[in-house]
Amino acid sequence: MTAAVAEPGPTDAPLLRVRGLDKHFGPVQALYHVDLDLPSGKVTALCGDNGAGKSVLTKCIAGIYQPDHAEFLWEGHPAHIRSARDASRLGIETVYQDLALADNLDIVQNMFLGRERTSRGLLDEDSMERAAGETLASLRVTTVKSIRQPVASLSGGQRQSVAVAKAVMWNSKLVIMDEPTAALGVVQTKMVLDLIRRLRDRGLAVMVISHNLNDVFEVADRIAVMYLGRLVVQGDAATFDRQSVVEYMTTGAAGRPGGPRAKES
Amino acid sequence: MAGALPERAPDLTAAPEAIAAELPPEVVAQSLGEYVRAYTARIRAGESGVLPVIVAMVAIMVVFEAISPNHVFLSPVNLVNLFQQSAVIMVLAMAEGFALVIGEIDLSVGFVGALGAAITVQLVQPLTTNWPWWAAILAGLFACAVFGAIQGTLVTRLRLPSFIVTLAGFLIANGLFLKVLLLGPFSGYPNLAGQSINLQVVYYLMWGSIDPVISWIGAAVVVIGLGLFMWLGDARRRSSGLVAPPVSLTLVKIGLIAVIAIVVVGICNTNRANLGTLEGVPWVIPIVLAVLGAWTVLLQRTTYGRYVYAIGGNPEATRRAGVNLAVVRTVAFTLCSFTAGVGMLLYASLLGGMSNNVQGGQYVLYAVAAAVIGGTSLFGGRGKPLHGILGGLVIGGIYNGMYLQGLSVEWEYIVTGLVLLAAVIIDSVSRRGSSSGSVTRV
User: Fold this and answer.
1) In the predicted structure, residue B3 carries a pLDDT above the cut 80
2) Rounded distance, CA B331 to CA B383, Å?
3) What is the C-alpha to C-alpha distance for residues A206 and A196, in angstroms, rounded to an integer?
4) Per the domain annotation, does B346 fall within a domain?
5) Does B149 touch chain A (CB under 8 A)?
6) What mean pLDDT do residues B71-95 have?
7) CATH code of the domain in which B129 resides
8) Among A235, A256, B223, B284, which is most exposed with the fewest C-beta within 10 angstroms?
9) Percentage above 70 pLDDT, chain B
10) Which B positions 180-199 lie with beta carbon below 8 A of chain A?
11) Closest to B266 measured CA to CA, from B230, B225, B220
12) What are chain A's domains?
């Protein structure tokens, strides 16, 4: 899989560059010509009001939906994302809001669901448990009492951590998280935000979809705002403030002169 | 090792006691004492595991031994008899387990199994087809598997409710079963009496006994093999720092298996005949154990089994993990009907033939009841083949005890119904208890 990487691509190109993505459902145009960059080692927050198209865009990148037209540049090279399998082959993993964990299975079983290791036809539990333990330890997810406990017995933040660990275990390069803190309390939210920073520090590209501007400003390096199916602005988080993000979210434009213009570069 | 997570302060947002109560005791306990404490905490929290069924079994033994005429309930003759009667329900309950764990139900097990058994009994008849016993058994089981595969395909591809599909299957299999019985010159009652080796093998499935000495040797081999496997597996996990039960617990489990083996073989090896000798372990015990072992390995140790549980727990997550749900579900229905074929083949052997008054409908209810009484959840995602064995013993015990009392069948239905009700209440209460934390499902 990594054979072709040594070839010198455009070095400072973002990990994933989306160009001209259109998507409609029947008569409804859900996304108009979206351009989005997701660089490695950065947390990009995708903001927008309900119905702005955040979820559709996410699902197009994750291979769940087929865009009508789109150009994907992965590490500078053209790539096709036609199915969830294509996306995960590239190294794109998505943590959905519902986390997609089976309550009756334990942490290890959930982390390896669909990609179990076997030896001589039987499940290789020892090897899976070791790998899952290493991944959790490297993410410093240490509050779980045992990695053999069923997911049903975990707190909301722990469940989120397990879902994230599941996503990063597969040498993923881009992790997309849908509303990771929506259902969490204060302590749990802090735990998850720390986890997101740790992913970034590992050099992963992270895209966080969030309504919560506190979280966005706490964790994001870059901010992209959607409004009625268009990506109206994206740029360095430092060039935004709360006020301008809210204006972009609600009107599609910033009222104040001198705010960041739509689309950097 | 990296696998062992450093001990840290527990999660601040949940009470530690609540966490302890929700965890399976074997993953948290470092010693036998801790295990017992964790287990009691779990029972208090409503997660009772196999405890209710053990209590029920002890209660049945005590009560029926006390009231049965001449205290024959616990006599070796009756216990072997009880096991033979229960074996059919046990295997049918293990069959039903496949449907229950994926969150479906199969109402057709009784008559689909009867159809397969009728095919086998017809094929071994020397007067007509005279097939070798193994070919006849394979043909009967194959017919069951095909029936199950068709039902599974209808449920998964056309997205029909399994309740209705298998209800239709119940009626269709009932009709086909009666049609098969009418074939040949047996007036609808083909039996297993006769000198033909093929007839005798099918008859011996239930009534044949293994030589007492070989019984002991076989039991020793099974206990030592299983014990070594458990001991070495746990020791390897302990030494590499993986989650493992304490040494004492492993020893207690192995000891328990050895005691059960000694008691069962001891009972079977006492002479059960009034005249002459009838001793040794009946064939049916290794047959049931083979089904138990095969399905336990399949469900607990293979990728397929993992997907079966995952579908029962969260089908959507399993789909997103790239699992082909339709295939896993269809295979589950196929295995359910196949295993039902084994169960009803034992029934044919118990009866010494097949007749048109097989209570296929009642056996379905017993199968579901036995699985649920044993600890399998009606809501999917939880259940083991062992639960079918335990539940089957409870229902078989009630049936046998009431029969010894000379109580009419009405009472047997009523008591079995009440036990089933109790099992379902325990199931749904423990489910509510376990979802009291962060998890809420509709």
Assistant:
1) no
2) 17
3) 8
4) yes
5) no
6) 93
7) 1.10.3470
8) A256
9) 88
10) none
11) B220
12) 12-91+175-265 (3.40.50.300), 97-171 (no CATH)
Out of B231, B257, B281, a domain closes at B281
**Do residues B387 and B274 share a domain?**
no
Tokens of A62: 């994750």
**Number of structural domains chain B divides into:** 2
Q: Which among B3, B302, B320 is the nearest to A100, CB-wise?
A: B320
What distance in Å separates residue B169's CA from the closest CA in chain A?
A: 30
Confidence of residue B276 (pLDDT cuts 50, 70, 90): confident
Query: Within 13 Å of residue A81, how many CA atoms lie on the same side as its CB?
Result: 31
Q: Give B171-202 pLDDT, tens digit per residue.
A: 999 999 999 999 988 888 888 988 899 999 99
Least CB-CB distance to B27: which of A126, A143, A148? A148
**Looking at the predicted structure, is the pLDDT value of residue A105 above 90?**
yes
Residue with tokens 């959790």: A136
Q: Which of B236, B261, B281 delimits the end of a domain?
A: B281
Q: Tens digit of pLDDT for each residue in A3-31?
A: 444 444 445 678 999 999 999 998 988 99
What is the least distance, in Å, from the CA of A262 to any CA of chain B? 35
pLDDT of residue B7: 40
Tokens coding A192:
């998850």
Q: Distance (Å) from the C-alpha of residue B18 to the closest C-alpha of chain A?
A: 9
Q: Cβ of B3 and A129 within 8 Å?
A: yes
Tell me which of B34, B242, B432, B434 to substitute to probe the interface with A (most A C-beta atoms closer than 10 Å). B242
Among B12, B314, B322, beta carbon nearest to A187? B12
Whether residue B286 is found in the same domain as residue B141:
yes
Region at A73 (left for phi over 0; alpha for psi -120 to 50; beta for the rest) = beta
* Minimal Cβ distance to B8: which of A104, A114, A142: A142
Contacts of residue A224, Cβ cutoff 8 Å, sequence gap at least 6:
A36, A44, A45, A46, A47, A231, A233, A234
B202 and B228 fall within a common domain: no
Write out the residue range of the structural domain in which residue B386 sits: 50-208+282-433
